[in-house]
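Annual report, structural modelling task.

Input specification for the 1-O-alpha-D-glucopyranosyl-D-fructose complex:
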Amino acid sequence: PSDRAWWKDSTVYQIYPASFCDHAANGHGTLKGILSKITYLHTLGVDIVWLSPIYESPQADMGYDISNYQDLHKPYGTLEDWDEILKAAHAKGMKLVMDLVVNHSSDQHPWFKESRSSKANPKRNWYIWHDGKLNEKGERVPPNNWKACFGDVSAWEWDEATQQYYLHLFLKEQPDLNWENPELRHAVYDMMHWWLKKGIDGFRMDVINFISKVPGFPDAPVQNDRLYQDFGAMSINGPRVHEWLQEMNREVLSKFDCFAVGETPGPDAVDVFSPYSNPTNKELQMVFHFHHQSVDRIGGQLGSRQYDPKWKLSGFKEVFNTFQVEMEKQGGWNSNYLENHDQPRTISRFCSDHPEDRAKSAKLISMFQSSLGGTLFMYQGQEIGLCNVPRDWPEEEYIDVESIANLQSEREYRRRKTGEQNPDMSDMLKSLRQTARDNGRTPMQWDSSEYAGFSKAKPWMRVHDDYADGWNVAAQMKDPNSPWSFWQKMLKLRKDFPALVYGKFIPLDEKNEDTYAYIRDDSTISQILLIVLNFARGDGRGATSTFVVPKEVDVSNAKLIISNGQAKQGSAIDGEIQLSPWEGRIYVL
Ligand code: TEU
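The model returned the following structure:
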């Protein structure tokens, strides 16, 4: 059917350039390193490569602070090197997608330098400037109570020279662009044209649902006793976001055969997210919602890093079941991702990273993600079952700005509250180990040589301790039973069974806290698949479980097509399904 566009059954692979592959022996990933792995990605079964930001940047937030949208961060390489990647990907029939970070720029971008130079500068209104307020004591304070994303700091930074505050929803080095200004919007569209004309196949758009702020910048609702509060209600899925994305589509995206995925955090319900990808609205092809990312977190939907060890499988299922079913009903299209550079590793979150459970857990996750509807996104390292960094790494190894800012803010808050100079932080550290972004940013593990074959020099971030124990690409590509080989099989299976991509999603036994089971049914080709996944945690190491197939499902002709356990291919369903810990099975009915 014509509604089966190329990006729908594609597998996207996200590269985090700093940590992917270093060919210059500088301890930092390079474009030549990426080029050397294009064939590798093709062998794995990847269709689309997405590069996290490689643009010119002071790297206050690992490149999500861009100082020149049309040139590259020198240590990565040149535009010519980048062109080689594009050519190599296209030669293999693969597509290349770039990160687009336009909610904010770097404070070192020439636009911002001009903007802050004087109130009369023509680019003043390309950013969001505001006068301060006076508090009861007559002191100058920010225009409202919004908290920036990292740590407990105000989202407004005072500018001494021009005596106004500017807005930054992230670091103060990441001032927000003023989308209300049509000149700014068109400068962004021109830049997008420039990249698309170079031949790229689309964009991943950073926090694109943050661009429209509630007019007048009112205070955010007060939810706790902190000074600054979650800006979500005032800046997420704001009043003009759809209007602007439609304009962007008209002016840019619709002129190319490209696809766009918007990163869209926020607590709103599915019907707030489905319009972004509903083709009648002509905006984006899909978005990354964040609901599953808060299943194992306490408090605050937006980016809470406080771990909840009592998270429930039914909660996890509810998120996916809702989005799978509702997106289809509401005419949207799902993206299906678990990991990225902002999240800890899935195996350590939702399965078990004990050495004996880890490979099976990795395969379970592969079966899960590969059998969900929507476009599949995998993150570097998922294919070899990378897990969180060892729990005994000292605090100093956590070098992400968010990790550092959160720890520092919390320490200060506890000092104020308790009056103690060294308040107890052990619960925070425990949470950090479980949820920090650092977990997903360790260098990629290519082989068992020093630094995991990532670099000849000491890497910018410590390599996981496990790389020589089989947790590397070289070892796993040779082993037909490895997570890598399993992922390769699953990606191929997804192409062989279009029901996995397009089928109707029918959840089964939704309250079951041990197994996750569902049907994928593509009536256009009479293909029905049953997926049964054992997520029972037991004491943390997993547990056996029994799945009773509901009577209304006809399993009389069921044949197993793949499993990460002992069950034989082609075997039937005879009564209940007995699953070993972390076992998953896919049957064709
Ligand atoms: O992330 C946006 C985002 O909301 C979160 O995932 C973020 O990581 C944060 O932890 C919330 O507490 C995007 C990028 O993916 C991230 O790397 C950047 O730091 C951020 O935007 C700013 O550009």
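The chain has three domains: 11-105+181-388+443-488, 110-167, 503-588.
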